[in-house]
């Protein structure tokens, strides 16, 4: 997938949907149900672009229940209504997991494998600007079809184990996910397929490719 470069200065995440509309940045779908025991497929799509110093992400979701139990960064947001961006931006064996629940609470981890990952401290996670259509207050599961959006401005400084100054012209590997481990209907969707037996998003061997302009 090609990632458009946008020539914009400082931008707030609430401005991303309108900016992407104006610039013709298209949605991609997250629809791969990789494990038959978790057949539910909510409607999930995302858009991605980049600037001189950041990756811009906009997710749009429609699902039959939502939950936002975690309101402080570095919690178990994957158990809530959650969207995720995993990537290998440094050209080595370290991949980052950036996970965001439906009210914009995030966690960032890094390392070469699922185990023994290093979590980003608060001074790093707070660099990621976010907006959620559902606001920022926590709530327990609400059953009933709900549409929600989140937008993230992820500065390259958030990739805290590297010093990334530019992704211009680079090709990296990545995957995008939607999950809700503790929802009434658990689900695990991916952008790029993950042909393994049990749910596991920490599989950089099954990432797709992003080509940055």
What does this molecule look like?
There is one protein chain. The chain is mainly beta and 213 residues long. The protein has a single domain (2-198), classed as Immunoglobulin-like (Sandwich). Helices cover 6% and strands 43% of the residues. It has two helices and 14 strands; from the N terminus they run βαββββββββαβββββ. Strand 7 (95-101) and strand 8 form a beta hairpin.
The main β sheet shows up as:
14 strands, mixed
Q: List the total number of helices.
A: 2
Oligomeric state of the chains?
single chain
- As residue ranges, the low-confidence spans are none
E-strand count: 14
Query: Which shape, going by the Cα principal axes?
Result: globular
CATH class label:
Mainly Beta
- Average pLDDT confidence is 97
Given helix and strand content, the structural type is mainly beta
- What is the CA-CA span between the terminal residues? 11 Å
Strand content: 35-45%
Helix content: under 10%
The fold-level CATH name is Immunoglobulin-like
Radius of gyration: 16 Å
Instruction: Give the second-level CATH assignment, the architecture.
Output: Sandwich
H/E order of the elements? Answer: EHEEEEEEEEHEEEEE
- How many structurally independent domains? 1
């Amino acid at each position: 997938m090609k990632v458009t470069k946008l020539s914009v200065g400082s931008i707030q995440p609430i401005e991303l949907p309108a900016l992407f509309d104006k610039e013709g940045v298209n949605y991609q779908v997250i629809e791969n149900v990789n494990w038959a025991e978790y057949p539910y497929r909510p409607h999930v799509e995302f858009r991605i672009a980049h600037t001189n110093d950041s990756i811009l992400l906009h997710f749009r979701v429609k699902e039959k229940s939502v939950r936002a139990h975690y309101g402080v960064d570095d919690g178990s947001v994957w158990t809530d209504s959650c969207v995720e961006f995993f990537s290998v931006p440094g050209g080595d064996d370290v991949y980052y997991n950036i996970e965001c629940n439906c009210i914009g609470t995030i966690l960032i981890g890094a390392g070469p494998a699922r185990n023994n990952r290093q979590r980003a401290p608060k001074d790093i996670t707070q660099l990621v600007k976010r907006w959620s259509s559902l606001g920022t207050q926590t709530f327990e599961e609400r059953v009933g079809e709900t549409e929600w959006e989140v937008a993230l401005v992820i500065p390259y400084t958030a990739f805290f184990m590297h010093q990334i100054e530019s992704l211009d012209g680079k090709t990296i590997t990545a995957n995008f996910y939607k999950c809700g481990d503790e929802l009434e209907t658990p689900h695990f969707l991916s952008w790029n397929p993950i042909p393994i037996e049990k749910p596991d998003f920490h599989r950089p061997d099954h990432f797709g490719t992003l080509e940055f302009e």
